[in-house]
Amino acid sequence: MNTLFDKIWDSHVVQHVEDGPDQLYIDRLYAHEVTSPQAFAGMRARGLKCFRPDHIYCMPDHNTPTHDQDKPIEDPVSKKQVDTLEQNCRDFGLTHFGMMHPNNGIIHVVGPEMGLSLPGMTIVCGDSHTSTHGAMGAVAFGIGTSEVEMVMASQCILQTKPKSMRISVEGELGKGVTAKDVALYLMSQLSTSGATGYFVEYAGSAVRSLSMEGRLTLCNLSIEMGARGGFIAPDEVTFAYLKGRPNAPQGEAWNQAVAAWSKLKSGDDAVFDKELSFNAADIEPMITYGTNPGMGIGITQSIPQPQNASDEKALRYMQFAGGEQMLGKQVDYVFLGACTNGRIEDFRAFASIVRGRHKAEHITAWLVPGSWRVLDQIKAEGLDRVLAEAGFEIRQPGCSACLAMNDDKIPAGKLAVSTSNRNFEGRQGPGSRTCLASPLVAAAAAVTGVITDPRTLMD
Q: Is 139 within 8 Å of 8 (Cβ atoms)?
């Protein structure tokens, strides 16, 4: 019996090249302002039009400022990239959700919430965190700029089929343990290269218990284990999330779609190239201490002793030492947002910790929704008032401090607890130091001013 990955992949193969790649049909291409300009330039140079423009959705997110979006962008490089995307979409007749458009936001947040990412699809974008959309039960992966051009021109891509891996997490997640902690735990066990060459299916009772937002977070971080992508078989959680979304099937078409989607699962006798299993009870709230997402520990644990020169370099950069506790370390910045944790559930979690408390005086906090729809929901639920009373300000949607391609940069030497996906040297700004964590851990740091176990602040 084939795995679900086999079923989706094989049903999209247009042609198999002997001893070579597959020509794979792509259902959805997402494009943002950073990795698309050269693709559009290549299309122009060859006099090509987009083969299926109605399958392509574009929006700026990396360079968008998270304040004063109704005014011209001050940074000339960012402005040029954002303006160029708008012009390219106009020239090629593509759907464009520009700044201030009610459908704008981080592309990996907007796709699922708009019902553009659906079970059984193949989805690509010139962005490594395209794996996020796998939470919908889709085969989704990041591609290079030349491949973006290939999909624009043909709605197909040449791609070697990855191997399949199933990661099962069984049992019940403990108090204060979120999908982000599951992902950071898996990376700490597998390393950042442990899933290289594989497409990962997440399974097990702990994974099935996750909300849609949690599943999106887990799949988002698949790339940080080296995987080509990660996904979760669609189920009632998926269908409930998608029902009524703007681009999801409606009426009788919805019933037919759910009937088809319900068959998207790996068979009981499916054979994977690799299988791994973990116990949910072993996972506590996590935090990273080094300069890659795999350098993470449970928040009550001590930093491991360095095992090699790379570990020593990472600890030197982070100004930490082996054997030290992460608990109690002073924090300067807190960032809630990114395609990893910029959804409504993440803001609910953050608010649950800060409610009735106040931001630590020395903390600079950036709370950035992943889309305008998320911001609208924050306001509709009154979370904006809870956060304001605790001394926090909500910014406008965008990638923000995830990658320092806009104004939101962590200053050199400062320590940030961030809900984003990468903690490489300088990722959040030259010389910045980043500890990756869940919204609960970020909120606990924001109100105490130091790295804190959020369970001590939970009712």
A: yes
